[in-house]
Amino acid sequence: MPKYVPEENEVRLLPLGAIGGSHDSPPNDSILYLVNGVPQPKENNKWLGGRSCRDYLKGQHLCLDRVMRHMNEEAKQRYIEKYGEAAKHGVVEYICVEDTLCDYYMDQHEELKASRRRVSGVVYDENDEPLNHTIIHILQFEPEKKIWGFETTDSLGNFAFWVPRTGVKMHFTYIGYKTIVIEPTDTFQTIYLLPNDNLKSLKESLKF
Hints:
Layout: E1 32-35, E2 38-39, H1 45-48, H2 53-58, E3 62-70, H3 73-83, E4 91-98, H4 103-108, E5 116-124, E6 135-140, E7 146-152, E8 158-164, E9 168-173, E10 180-182, E11 189-192, H5 197-205
Parallel strand pairs: 1-4, 5-11
Antiparallel strand pairs: 1-2, 3-4, 5-8, 6-7, 6-9, 9-10
């Protein structure tokens, strides 16, 4: 799938998947949401306007690359000319790439399964509550060190994706919690993240 390229001179809000963060602007039925230039039905704004946008995109076998907001009057006018009155209150555009770690992609590329494994599991906090949208960095150590890819847990803390069979580790990160590093396995994994005591102490010290 060729990579979608947005128009020039637009503001780039999220870095290229660097931290796997979420677009947290509140749902807004008046805003037009685009996915790679394609207008999305208004009834889907509730999914596209918050953290659940990644789950929505995964359902289309896409990974979020970055988010563009087109809210100034000049941008609105340009998009009204292109998409009509649906864009009059502004446009939020999701730039996506194909999800090459999902089951759908792997089923289309059976030849890759010999060199990869499917990992799955769930992430909880210290109170057995699921940690939704936990960031999972997949770090490759062989033959060279690099970030091979990243994923996030869904709204229930679940994850499932494909990684290289050897030479990688997974870093689970969530704000306010200690990062944990594990090696992929073929079995379902239950991950517990513990609070970062240093961060907790800092918050306590800032209270008045």
